[in-house]
Amino acid sequence: MHLELGPIVISGAALDRVRARIFSFTSKINIHTLRPLPVFLGVTGPSFCIGADAFSPPISFSSEKTIKKHEKCTSRISRNLAYFATNYTIMALGTVLVVALMHPGMLFYVGITWGLWWLHLVVLREDIKLVVMEKDLNEIMSPNRRSWVLYVWTFYVAVAKCLHPSLKGLAISGALVLFHAIMRNPAKLASDMVRSKSIASGAGIVTMTAR
């Protein structure tokens, strides 16, 4: 099995590897892998300041071999994607939501499309007769024709109104995730997790004392 995209041919083994990576990433998205915000941002201390060693480039601009640099970058990205899978998902969804809210026209067309489909399905399910001026609209515009019109309208809205904002949201969220995955130093995650738990427990003790 393979996939042909014009002159580009993707082998079945490559597709299997991509599916395995996607499944491996999505299987880690749950509440148990949601890391605390201080750990995600590399925050240290009660002042909520980002630690100087929390973010660092995975490679140094020296005479190191290109292969080793590539391996270091790939290893860091893989480790961070596995560790912060839920955080990255929330950040990506939040970014896409913000971009969508910046395009009210797109939301307006999406709302109209959803409403038209809902009305169409209700008419079909309840077998409602659409009669205007003693004329049955179901004879003029049959359910099959209405479905095709809605398919064409939905395709138009998806391409003309939603494609550009969606690509923009995916690009911005992808850039943010990739930047964090490359720059977040995995070697400091264990110490940051311990520090975050100690800060949280200290805050809990202060709260109990105040009560």
From TrEMBL:
InterPro entries in the cross-refs: Prenylated_rab_accept_PRA1
Keyword Membrane part of the UniProt annotation: yes
Segments crossing the lipid bilayer: 81-100, 106-124
One Gene Ontology cellular component term attached to this UniProt record is: Golgi apparatus
Keywords, ordered alphabetically: Membrane, Transmembrane, Transmembrane helix
Its principal location?
membrane
Q: Where in the cell is it found?
A: Membrane
Membrane topology for this entry?
Multi-pass membrane protein
**Disulfide bond in keyword set:** no
Q: Which family does it belong to?
A: Belongs to the PRA1 family.
Query: What's the protein name?
Result: PRA1 family protein
